[in-house]
Amino acid sequence: MNNNNTNPLLRPMIVIAFCILIASAAFLLPALELTGNASLLPVAMLIALMVLSVILVITDIKKARTNKTPNKPALQSPGRVFGALLSVFVFVTSVDLFGFYLATAIFVPVAAYLFGCRSLKVLVASDVIVVAGIYLIFGMAMAKDFPMGSIW
Amino acid sequence: MYMDLISALPSVLTFDNFFAVVIGVLSGIAVGAMPGLSATMAISVLVPFTFGLDPLVALGLMAGIYNGAMYGGAIPAVLLRIPGTPAAVATSFDGYPMAQQGRGGFALQVAVVSSAIGGIASALALMLLAPPLAKVTLLFGPSEVFWIAVFGLCSIIFLLGESPIKGLISACFGIFVSMVGADPITSEDRFTFGQLELLDGINMVILLVGLYAMPPVIDLLEQPLETKEAGKALKTESLIRSLPKMFRFWKTWLRSSFIGIWIGILPGAGGSMAAFMAYNEARRTSNNPNEWGQGEPEGVAAAETANNADTASALIPALTLGIPGTAVAAVMLGGLLVHGLQPGPMLFRDNPDIVFGFMWQFLFGAILLIFLGGSLATNSFSHLLKLPRPVLGSIIIVLMFIGVYSINERMFDVYLMLGFGLIGYVMDKFKFPLPPVVLGLILGGFAEENLRLTLLIGQGQWSALFANTTSLVLVAMTIAVVVGPMIKRRLVKNRQSKGE
To answer: Of B478, B479, B495, B490, nearest to B149 (Cα)?
Structure first.
């Protein structure tokens, strides 16, 4: 999916516009059920979003027709972006499952290694400093409780 | 109100507040020195950690970060020609050639002194201009407040972004998010879908962290940029010895300060525009314009003065009207809300110690730059450029988690932040402006409440929104903000087609 796609359905801006349109329409149903003035602004905003998404589709199609020069792809390395997003999600889920300190101790060096840091010294040092720092600052000094993990 | 300004001074001069500004300035320089990280991101990540702090301490941290980051951006701009922040692009034009000629240390000294001068001028402008403006806005009723919210949103949408359609979509999204939770007047549930966690609405911090911290983190992991040249020791003489060489820049400091302050007040403009304008103006009036771009220290002075002069002045419309001039100011408004402080004229009446204390903190932050941003600190911060970006990215993810989880100690908020982070990343990549989302969330509820109040007072008559002169003036200003850029764009297009 890139900005130079001739198939309009595969152009990213049009995909985004359709997502906005569908999400707005889905939220419009409960918004219409609200009573009195409670629905005033939500309905107005959702209808505005739907109209704007249609305008976005039209302007993007126009732009695709007139613009002959190839555009730069929006994502330079989609695999890395997907991996980064996945790693954040995996970290949050593993905190929920295994507990904050264990998940953090594993996540920091593993994510750094996977995304290009190959120095063992840096990986170990950063892991120890981060986990110990969080424990001392947030756990001890600020008495913050973090998730212990549902698996245990 | 100027008496309130003076009486707020003792409350700022406590160890805690002063320490907060010092830490803020140092952290700001560190964040600014790392390409890819910005003051906006740093403040977004910091806001949740300030929950338990005294509001002035929290605001001192933010003021320090803002000031520090604006200078910090100059470090990689001078040493590597990689601007740490967008506002430091113009600094690299002459700063980098100076570094290549072995004068990098002097370039950074010029940058730090000029940044401090710009910051001081900006803080003084905030102190002088905000109180009278707040006094006027105190007279506003619900219809005027509603129009101010509309004017603020339109300013950000039509002046900040390249595409008004995308700006409008961002703003509508922000306003819609502000509607989630119990209705402020009837207490009816709106879009909570049975989730008790959403009854109080969506916390501003969750949105801020998701939108502003996630995209740069993903960028850090996506492009592991190596900066092997970084961290070389800089040859510098002491700042006191270097200062006399800089006095010849006094006209540039003065001119660039005015440009920075003016750009800061204008909604939608920002530090980078101020720096470019000041650089061009200084070059235009220079006796030796041909030497610019080849290592002229006055170029560094112009750019750095202007991008720091834009900091506090961007808060003039933000604090008095609730209309932030820049993305950082929008995030700072979020920081105020977190501490129960609603930006606008009431802030000056109800919390004078805090709002005027905040202004003093901006002034102290700017002065502290000279002492904290000296050669020792600059040398140390230049080493930060060696920190591997994947390590930095994973640490920020952990900090994001801690910040959001700490608000209510529940995982629901963290998953919500992930959702906003994903939306923020897509918006950022496809150039949907983010400040209108934040402003929509800040002003959405505010606008709705005042709209419904106006309709209640006017017994359901929509004409109540146009019933007085102030409202009509605000409507006219809103129309000007919407139509002005369209006319300008059309004129530019016509001129271009004539040229062809």
So the answer is: B478
Q: Directed axis angle between helix B55-72 and helix B297-313, to 10°?
A: 160
pLDDT tens digits along B134-186: 877 777 888 888 888 888 788 778 766 678 899 999 999 999 999 999 888 88
Range of the domain at A82: 78-141
Q: How far apart are the first and last CA of chain B?
A: 56
A25 located within any domain: yes
What is the tens place of the pLDDT at every residue in B485-499? 788 778 887 887 776
Domain match, A15 and A51 both:
yes
pLDDT at B382: 67
Single out the residue in A17, A44, A66 at which a domain terminates.
A66
Cβ pair A34:B452 closer than 8 A: no
Nearest to A52 among B168, B183, B186 (CB): B168
In chain B, positions 29-58, which contact chain A (CB-CB < 8 Å)? 52
Structure ipTM: 0.90
What is the greatest pairwise CA distance in chain B? 73
Is the distance from CB of B64 to CB of B16 less than 8 angstroms?
no
* Beta carbons of B70 and B77 less than 8 angstroms apart: no
- Asked if A104 is an interface residue toward chain B (Cβ–Cβ < 8 A), one would say yes
Residue with tokens 């359709």: A18
